[in-house]
Design a protein that fits this description.
- Helices cover 38% and strands 21% of the residues.
- With 560 residues, it is an alpha+beta fold.
- It has two domains: 62-339, Distorted Sandwich (Beta-galactosidase, Chain A, domain 5), CATH 2.70.98.90; 367-559, no CATH class.
- The longest helix is centred in the C-terminal third of the chain and has 43 residues, at 371-413.
Length: 560
């Protein structure tokens, strides 16, 4: 019977994990719809300043491959020469938000400093998302089914009016068309509305090359590099993540369909290209693996096609932290830029992780508690919510222990008559208010916290709100415990729960073996995990000890 219960528990754990998808469905894709030019010109990031309007677009936005025929532009990785910023201008807030250094060569940002975030690597100082002497973005123009014209080394003239920068090339030549690019910097300085005109271009694409890598910003260099990735959102696939390490050198991955956004990201920061809220979607994107000088993939390339309609184009640029509140505010499903969970597990983990993150942020903001105390409170709350279920399940387990002798006797007595055996067993269950599903349902409360634990594993790995947050002796809730105290407490508390649970119970060699193995396995699994995760699980175990002790005493009374 113990083997059957073990198999039932295993089957139920799988059912709980995948059944969560039914309880917490993923959010439906919210793709911006194409509207006319009037709506586009009045929604320029709420700046109140008139910018270059987005012209009315056709009902079916042509993809880049249709614009170019069978030819799709393929980016080159790590071959572009550094561009000297001959004429630069600093935009953004000097004390908070982001500070941009814009270059007149290529009309693109060449430095991007996060004023509110310290670089935790040996470099120190503020986080800068740019590689020295290399622009953050590079531009190309493909007009009227022509060839790609590289603008990264093209000189532009610049004019400034408040928070608006306008870059203009000279007169059109056979090599370079006349291009105007305008940046409107939003008050938060993380968001920029970019629009422009390509003279004489009835159709085509304004091609944006995203960053090929990011500087190291975290103390654990190897871990930081493992998070380098691109991501995109399409109506057909939803949010998808493409890690640098998943791309072989030179391997091309084209995404030929309309996209809401495409982004390059590190562990905590992101450079995202978003289709306008009122305008056409991005046409397509191409990702290419970069050459590797070590086991860790540190560079790749991505190009994004912004459609040109009647000579105009527009997109929004977000360059900043992966802060959930900010990403939600941008809309267009950009809060999914950091998908949680492994690929085959993402549909389950994403909604749970999203909900848990929302709850943690709400508790921090509304209750004015530190994140460390929020994690402690969350662990206690989970156990309080599950208290009635645990109580009922454990008492059901006590009844099952009392019924075992009767059930065993019936099985032996009617072993040659299966039909009579089932009838008598069901009669015993009915007399005691039980059912054959009682052992299965009794395992449910023990399994319900597991999806939350798995979700928190991903949340603590790259949620910037926990970055550098200290609590007690912990210097960073998103990093491992420097003294390995919490993994030890977590393992001991897990063993105590099992030990108390087996008191006054019939001898069970399997349960005894698991009581030793499971704590060791969890300690090994979580010893290098985020200290915040270990804190949550240790608190949850400690909060469950009183209930386990009370039920052990009740079991002892029934035995006497």
């Amino acid at each position: 019977m113990d083997n059957r219960r073990f198999l039932l528990a295993l089957a139920l754990s799988v059912a709980v994990i995948f059944g969560v998808q039914l309880l917490f469905p993923t959010k439906a894709a919210r793709i911006s719809k194409t509207t006319d030019s009037t709506a586009a010109s009045t929604n320029s990031l709420a700046t109140g300043i008139t910018t270059i309007p987005t012209r009315a677009t056709p009902s079916a936005t042509p993809t880049m491959s249709k614009v170019l025929g069978a030819s799709v532009y393929a980016p080159q990785v790590a071959t572009a020469q550094a561009v000297r910023a001959e004429t630069t201008i600093v935009m953004g807030r000097p004390d908070s938000g982001a500070k941009y250094v814009m270059s007149s060569v290529g009309a693109a940002p060449v430095s991007l400093v996060m004023n509110a975030y310290q670089n935790r690597s040996r470099v120190g100082g503020k986080v800068n998302l740019a590689i020295p002497e290399t622009p953050i973005l590079k531009y190309q123009v493909i007009a009227n089914q022509g060839t790609a014209v590289d603008l990264s080394a093209t000189p532009f003239s610049m004019t400034q009016q408040g928070n608006i920068l306008t870059y203009q090339t000279g007169a059109a030549t056979s090599a370079i068309p006349s291009v105007s690019i305008q940046y409107v910097f939003a008050p938060d300085s993380y968001t920029v509305h970019v629009s422009g005109i390509v003279a004489g271009a009835k159709s085509g694409a304004f091609v944006v090359n995203l960053p090929t890598t990011f500087p190291v910003t975290e103390s654990d260099t190897a871990d930081d590099r493992n998070y380098l990735a691109y991501a995109y959102f399409s109506k057909r696939e939803g949010a998808k993540n493409i890690a640098f390490r998943s791309l072989d050198p030179g391997e091309q991955t084209p995404i030929v369909e309309p996209l809401s956004w495409v982004a390059a990201k590190s562990k905590y920061f992101v450079v995202g290209l978003l289709a306008p809220k009122q305008g056409s979607l991005l046409s397509e994107a191409t990702f290419v693996g970069g050459a590797r000088t070590s086991k860790v993939a540190t560079n790749a390339a991505a190009t994004v096609a912004v459609p040109i309609h009647d000579g105009t184009f527009a997109f929004d640029l977000y360059t900043g932290p992966q802060s959930l509140r900010r990403l939600e505010h941008l809309g267009r499903n950009f809060d999914e830029v950091n998908p949680y969970g492994w690929a085959f597990f993402r549909g389950v983990m994403q909604p749970i992780a999203f909900g848990v993150t929302q709850l943690v942020l709400w508790m921090h903001e509304r209750l004015a508690l530190s994140y460390g105390l929020v994690v402690v409170l969350l662990g206690v709350l989970v156990r309080l919510v599950l208290w009635p279920l645990n109580q009922g399940a454990m008492r059901s387990s006590l009844k099952m222990q009392e019924l075992q002798p009767k059930l065993q006797s019936i099985q032996n007595k009617y072993k040659d008559n299966p039909e009579k055996q089932r009838t008598e067993i069901m009669k015993v269950y009915s007399e005691h208010g039980m059912s054959p599903l009682s052992p299965l349902l009794g395992c449910l409360p023990m399994l319900l916290p597991m999806p939350v634990l798995f979700a928190l594993y991903f949340v603590f790995r790259n949620t910037i709100e926990f970055r550098g947050v200290s609590f007690l002796w912990l210097t960073d809730l998103s990093s491992r415990d420097p003294y390995f105290i919490l993994p030890f407490i977590m393992g001991v508390s897990m063993f105590l729960l099992s030990w108390i649970g087996m008191r006054n119970s019939p001898p069970n060699p399997q349960a005894k073996m698991m009581s030793y193995m499971m704590p060791v396995m969890f300690v090994v699994f979580l010893v290098r995990a985020a200290s915040g995760l270990n804190l949550y699980y240790a608190v949850q175990n400690l909060a469950a000890l009183p209930q386990q002790w009370m039920l052990a005493r009740e079991r002892a009374k029934r035995a006497t």
